[in-house]
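Minutes, methods subgroup
Present: GH (chair), OT, SY

1. OT presented the first of two proteins processed in the latest run. Sequence and structure tokens recorded below as shown on screen.
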Amino acid sequence: MLTEQQKDTIKATAPVLREHGTTITTRFYQLLFEKHPKLLNIFNQANQKQGKQQRALANSIIASAEHIDQLESIMPVVEQIAHKHRSLGIKPEHYPIVGENLLIAIKDVLGDAATDDIMQAWEDAYQVIADIFISVEADLYEETEQQPGGWKDFKPFYIAGKVVESDVITSFYLKPVDEQPLPTFEPGQYISVKLDIPSETYTNIRQYSLSYKPNQSYFRISVKREDEHDPNGVVSNYLHNEASVGDLLDVSAPAGEFTLDTNSTKPLVLLAGGVGITPLINMLHTVVEQQPSRPVSIVHAVRNGDVQAFEQELTDLVLDHQHVNIYTILSHPTADDEANKHYHQKGFITYDWMKDHLPMDEADFYFCGPKPFMEAVMNHLNQHGVTEDRLNFEFFGPQEELETVQ
């Protein structure tokens, strides 16, 4: 337990951490990987190179400092991170390693400002926070392993099908090698895929949203091919260009907190930017099956029709379910798009367009996509006065902060 004095000490360091947080976490990861290079098999090196993981960890540390006297307020974030940790295979034995190097990084960056009292308070605080994560993750591991069809850590799968959805997105149908039934999952969840790529020194693990409804004999993931020079492109380019039907890969059980509330009867609005369509089309399939009378609007904002995935799949859902409305927004339509009027809005999603076409006053909103798209959507919804309890969103990758206009 932390003393009141220690809590006050931790809270007093929050402004300093906000100023130097990313510098501390950058130093932390440098130390961590120098001393424990095997952990490079777990951590996403693309996120490291882009600084995303450093910023995400810094934000978590700052939030912990600011709420050290009421840690229950950050439990939603803890749950979200714990799901990611469970899907990656993070275990209790990793936490002392992280703590040791984090404290060294704090001391290295803050220097003489990191007094003995401050360092002792942070050492004790880290243990409290680590114990919370370990407890939450232990429950997730147990729940995952004991559910029907569940398993611990990773399990061998093979690629049973590979379907091109657009110029940049390909779907992979994954089946377990042991041919056992798969566990069910919540629409919106993801799996971790672990690959040993011949050209790479370390194992690569990536999370991909499940893009088709649960209770099938397979998992479907739909992967966007990133630019081959982008650090994120290592796995996606391998899957697109090298992986073939029959190839083996290791897969985690489904995880994630960005899930559809099928108990709600409010109109549903799904807003996707680019490959952000993948968890949302899963939600759409599920809601039309389980709540066929629930009004649904799905908006897909993409560059043009060549890169738009699932057009026919979405069209078929509209034909079969009268309560579903689908809108396409193209920022840079091709000549064919223009000739065929292949969109409902040209340019970008706007406040006026949303107000004119969507049930803004009563719907539940779920959105996913690139950060600029999500910030635009969030600002439009805030401008309209949509309350926080009706907002649901997810980042692909480490949790970031959405910059909103006040």
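2. SY then presented the second protein from the same run.
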Amino acid sequence: MRANLNWVTADLAVGGDLAYDDTAMVAQVFEIIDSGITHVLDLRIEDDDTEIWETAKIAYLRVGTTDAEGHVVPPEVFDAGVRFARLAVREGGKVLAHCHMGINRGPSMGFAILLDRGHSPIEAFDMIHAARPQAFIAYAQDALSAHAARQQRKGAPPANGEKQARLLQRHIDEVLTPSTVGRIRHLMRQTHRRDLGFTA
């Protein structure tokens, strides 16, 4: 019945969704509340826990996106999540970024939040992966692109986005893709991003 989450920092957790069994789900909600989480950021498009978290008096934001093969998470999803996480920090709260299984979407949002807090892409990736080893963080490149665009809108000097993306991808490949299947998945994702016109 343990809540499906892992702490990345003292105020940021990433994970999966609540149990479908009502008894287990209620126990998980109380565990999440007792852990000090005040803000829940839901990346699922397939479910909505508004009623649960409103009842528990936990701030809840659903920025649903799919996890289909080849999907690119739009920058506005990461922008909304980062704003929500900033609000949580200002209010002295703690954030849970989650999806269904806690492998791609939730951990990728955690990665985006760490970038916004000043961590380098590789450092942020390693922090998520160390906290939740099963995380694949498939949308790290999308989060990095959204972060670079936010920095430019704020007037920050332009970073070498393509170089950062290449270094991050090399690191991801080294950490996550020792198998042939993993390498093929990454090649498919890179090809799909190029087809959509993404250069990083």
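Chair's summary of item 2: The beta strands are 5-9, 12-15, 39-44, 59-65, 95-98.
Next meeting: continue with the remaining queue.
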